[in-house]
Amino acid sequence: MWLSREKFVDDVYKLLKLDYPNVPFYENLALNTWVAYMNAFVKENPDKISTMLSTLGSQLNERKLNQVLLVAQKYPSMKSAATKIQTEKILRYLASNQSPKEIFTLLGLDHAGDTILRNPLFKSWMNYVKDFNKKNPKHQESWAEPLRTHYQWYGTQKLVGRAMQSPSTVKTAKLAEKKLLKLALDQEEPPTNVFKFMYLDEAVDGLRKSYNDKALLKMFNAAKKNPSTAKLVDNLQGALINKWLALKKQPEDLKVFLSNVALADAMIARYTKKFDATHAS
């Protein structure tokens, strides 16, 4: 209807009342309608896509424009142009040395939903974090923290689960799972939060990909000092003991490798009891 009347994109923006200041942009259902109209407009006027997006850049603030581009990427007619603009934006953000946490929100990734790990923009942001950390060795930021902050533990469980379903994002999902668990231990999250996120056996497997058992025990000892994480650590230690059992670790070898590690003797004693029971004639 609007297209047949030659309504311009900014006219439809006002007709849909997207310019109302008191309504959060991402919560306005008309946003998808507007971007769908943009798609129809571009199909009819393919030579005007650059002008249209440039005009939007002068009318919308950074966050609103990024949210529009995020939706626009779902349409083949606009995906290439929208991705190019966002890539250029990310380079400018890096040049200005903006915090990855701020950029996460500015790009609208805090409302990207539980398919965020499949989103090309999220992968670009991951690279942004990597480049930022190289540029700022004394100010390191984790790309897992904004996920936990904006999606909470239940939300991160969903987004990791969704990403695990696709072969193209399994690697990213496993990396996110590992990073989130490490973050939970570093920030001494309550055990109930972490249990909602992953199974203990999976947690230990993920940790052992980045840390040897000596480093793990040191990490556990540090977390055990906090009453809120003591139970979590006990369960993680139990899962690690089960892992040793599956690998048929020799108690004497563990004693040598874990010598001088606090509380290692108690853990090895627990393991030896299980090991002997398993190998009893």
Automatic annotation (TrEMBL):
Main location (coarse class)? host cell
Q: Which residues form the RxLR effector PexRD54 WY domain?
A: 89-129
Q: What UniProt keywords are attached to this protein's entry?
A: Secreted, Signal, Virulence
Q: Where does it localize?
A: Host cell; Secreted
InterPro entries for this protein:
PexRD54_WY
Quick check: keyword Isomerase in the entry?
no
Give the UniProt entry's GO cellular component terms: extracellular region; host cell
> Would you indicate the residue range of the signal peptide?
none
UniProt lists the family membership as follows: Belongs to the RxLR effector family.
Q: What is this protein called?
A: RxLR effector PexRD54 WY domain-containing protein
